[in-house]
Structures are given as C-alpha cells and as structure tokens.
Amino acid sequence: MNPMLKIGIACYPTLGGSGVVATELGKMLAEKGHEVHFITDRMPFRLGQFHTNIFYHEVEVSDYYVFRYPPYDLALANKLAQVAKQEQLDLLHVHYAVPHAICAYLAKQMVGEHLKVVTTLHGTDITILGHDPSLRDLIRMAIHESDAVTAVSRDLMLETYDVLAIDKEIDLVYNFVDPRDYMTPANPQLRAGFAQPQEKILLHMSNFRPVKRITDVIDIFAAVHRQVPSHLIFVGEGPDLAKAVNQVKELGLTNRVHFLGKQNNVAEVIGLADLLLLPSEKESFGLVALEAMAAGVPTIGSEAGGIPEVVRHGIDGFLASVGDTQQMAAYAVQLLRDPQLWSDFSRAGMQQARMKFSAASVVEQYEDIYYRVVGNS
Ligand code: GMT
C-alpha cells in the first residue's frame, strides 16, 4: 500500500476555476488521509469550515517602502520553502503557472531535490501569458523544471506543446466536481424570487473578462426572450460588468436580467437555472459547464478550446461557432420548448459529470502522478 503524502498546495484562493479545482482537490485528498497544506495569501474561498488533515499557511507580503510593487512572488517562494522544510512536505502541487510554478521552482532550490513539484496548467497561464514575451521564457523554464506537469484539457495540453515548444510529457487530467455538492433540488422559494413557474431561467457565471464575451450572453438572451418568456441571471463580476449593465439598459431588459455579483454557494444558484450560457472566445475547460452538468443544467456555448471535451454537442448541450449568437439562441429555444429533449440532455450531463469527470477517478489520477514523482510507484 502506498504511504499517505504530505502535500503543499498553492493557488489563487479567490479567483476563478483554478482556485476552485485546487481547493476541492485538497479537500478530497485530505478526506483520503493525505496531509494537505494550503499556502496562499488568504484562505481559499471554497475551503469553508474546519477539515481534518487540512492546514493553512498564510503568505505575508512585505510592504517595505522601497518596493514599488509588493514582492508577492518572492514571499510565496520563501513561504513554500519554509512550510516544506517545517512540515517535511513530499511535494508541492501548484495551480496556474504564473507565478506559482516559478515560485515552486525557487522553493525547490532552497529545500533540495527531494521536494517534488507538480504543476497544473489551467488556461490563460498558457493561452495568454505563454505568448507574452515578458513571461514566456520563465513559464517555459518552470514547466521543464517541474517533476510533473498536468493540463486540464487535451486542447490546453496541445496548445502548451505548440506555444512553448515543450519537449516534456504533459499529463492530461480533467477538472472534476464533487457530485455531492450538486444534488440539492432547486429551492422553489428562491426560484420564485426571479421567475414565474412558467418562465425559464438562463444563467451565466464568470469573471466578466473580455474572453467571456458577455455581450454575446446578452444578445443570446435577448433573442431567446423574444420567443420564450425568460430571465437571465448573472453571477460574478469583472471588467466587463459595467458594459453588460449598459447593454441590458439599452435593450430595455432591466427587469429581466439579474446581476447577483459574487456568490459563495454556486450550486444553489446553478440549481435554479434551465440553461447555462457559455459563449467564450477561449476556454481551456469551462469548469462552470461541468458544475452545471452535475446539477442537470444543459449548456449552450461556443466550440472554443476545451469546451467540446466537456459539453457533448447534441447529447448534453449545444455548441456553435464563437460569436454565432443567433445559432446559440436557436439551440436554446429548441431545448426550452422541448421538455423531453431537455430531460435527456439534463440526465446525460449528470451521468457524464459522474463518470468522465468523477472526483474519485480524477483524484486517483493525481495520486498516481504524486507517487510517480516521489518514487513510490
Ligand atoms: O485562465 C483563466 O482565465 C483563469 C482560470 C481560473 O482560475 O478560473 O480559468 C481557467 O481555468 C479553469 C479551471 O481549470 C478553466 O475551467 C477555465 O476554462 C480556464 N479559463 C480559460 O481558459 C479562459
């Protein structure tokens, strides 16, 4: 039997899917008996209450007046090394290459070869930052120096080989959801706060960055609403939020579109929806689509990046070319008007979330990688 491991996890604790995946993975590993140490600048927002086997180490960044920019990266590298030594960690599993993979590389230099580093690439750390001349060579070095590298979709894996000319094997490990979190049936009282029983609810959840094409979300909704009485719920915030609010006003849809801002209990909000809209320009995986599938909510989205590896066109969702809002709206109307088709999609998505993206099997894949790098396989 393999021994239990001591694992340090670094991630963005408050930002998007990579932090969610890292936190959920840490929770699952701790449930299996591993000792998990989160090393982040604040408590990961999905960590919630106290968990056995989970420890939290806060990265404190110096604000000494000489610094024009607070040296977060250096403080993180130093803390990773400190915790690794003090807790005798077997490995660091860092999520998102910049700066985490680079910090882990530095920590390893300080601690010694026996500290292994596993880096998980999540998306824009490669698809955007990998093209940035100010970071590219550093990202490439950190990938090559990691003991193992994983990508959350085949699309991202291929793009990493391509963009950074990587000659090291990258493991494909899909994101996952814990289905237990998505089993609660929709709360009828909450739903009634947004829509009449005969009306439909469409949902979009993101960080409102240009890559999410928020204006497309509203265009799709406007076209759907003309044919099927419905409401649109937005969860999240980010740079394009103000633009979205204006567009909704201009289209006279203010009483139909609800901006909820950041929400902690996403499973509860997803459970209210009939459809998820994800028309992104680029998406390495699309964790929110998987969360929706787990809750039985079909996705209408774009064929961008890794989305087709998650949502199966015509089986548990519908996908169209990026920017083809009319086609996406037509698909949405088709699904909303056909309860049998909607139920088939809903069931197929739930099954797929529990099979291909099952937490148990993904966590085992990560464990196999850990044992491979620490030399116990
Ligand atoms: O890269 C980003 O945009 C941020 C990152 C995040 O932390 O949410 O998102 C990426 O990682 C997620 C988790 O693996 C994926 O589900 C998202 O598709 C991916 N975002 C993009 O590729 C734009």
UniProtKB/TrEMBL annotation:
<dbReference type="Pfam" id="PF13439">
    <property type="entry name" value="Glyco_transf_4"/>
</dbReference>
<dbReference type="InterPro" id="IPR028098">
    <property type="entry name" value="Glyco_trans_4-like_N"/>
</dbReference>
<dbReference type="InterPro" id="IPR050194">
    <property type="entry name" value="Glycosyltransferase_grp1"/>
</dbReference>
<dbReference type="InterPro" id="IPR023881">
    <property type="entry name" value="Thiol_BshA"/>
</dbReference>
<feature type="domain" description="Glycosyl transferase family 1">
    <location>
        <begin position="196"/>
        <end position="349"/>
    </location>
</feature>
<protein>
    <submittedName>
        <fullName>N-acetyl-alpha-D-glucosaminyl L-malate synthase BshA</fullName>
    </submittedName>
</protein>
<dbReference type="InterPro" id="IPR001296">
    <property type="entry name" value="Glyco_trans_1"/>
</dbReference>
<feature type="domain" description="Glycosyltransferase subfamily 4-like N-terminal">
    <location>
        <begin position="16"/>
        <end position="179"/>
    </location>
</feature>
<dbReference type="Pfam" id="PF00534">
    <property type="entry name" value="Glycos_transf_1"/>
</dbReference>
